[in-house]
Each structure stands twice: as structure tokens, then as C-alpha cells.
Amino acid sequence: MLSRKEVEVIKALAEGPLKPKELYAKLGAHTEGQQANLRKVIKRLRDKGLIMKIPKSNLYVLTGKGMRILECIRILEE
């Protein structure tokens, strides 16, 4: 089961890879506290294997498993 925030992060990454700061801005996390909460959400998604961080370029991307979940989210929203 995914939380609402986790779904928002997956949707944001669906458009392409994002740097952490870009991801925070896209999801409206402006204060340090909001960004800390978002980091926890991102950590949970990484632990579940839905997103991964590319080390040298410092980008978050969806994995294959994340893409499948995204398809399910889109079907459920219709």
C-alpha cells in the first residue's frame, strides 16, 4: 500500500529524472521540515525498490517496478 505522498512522488518522477531540489520544488516542499518529511518518503520508496538514485548525476528515477505501479495508479484514477 502506498501513501498519498508516495503516489505524488511517483507521479512527479513519471515525467523524467529529477534532482532532489527540483523534486522538492515540484511537490511544494519549501521549508526545511517539509523537505525532511519528503526525504523520508523518498527513502521508503527507495527501500521498496520503486525509485532509485543515480549516484554521479544525483538524479532520482523510476525503476521498472515503479513504472508498473505508475500504470496501476493511472488505471485507478480513470
From TrEMBL:
ArnR1-like winged helix-turn-helix domain residues: 37-76
A Pfam family annotated for this UniProt entry: HTH_45
Protein known as: ArnR1-like winged helix-turn-helix domain-containing protein
Organism field: Ignicoccus pacificus DSM 13166
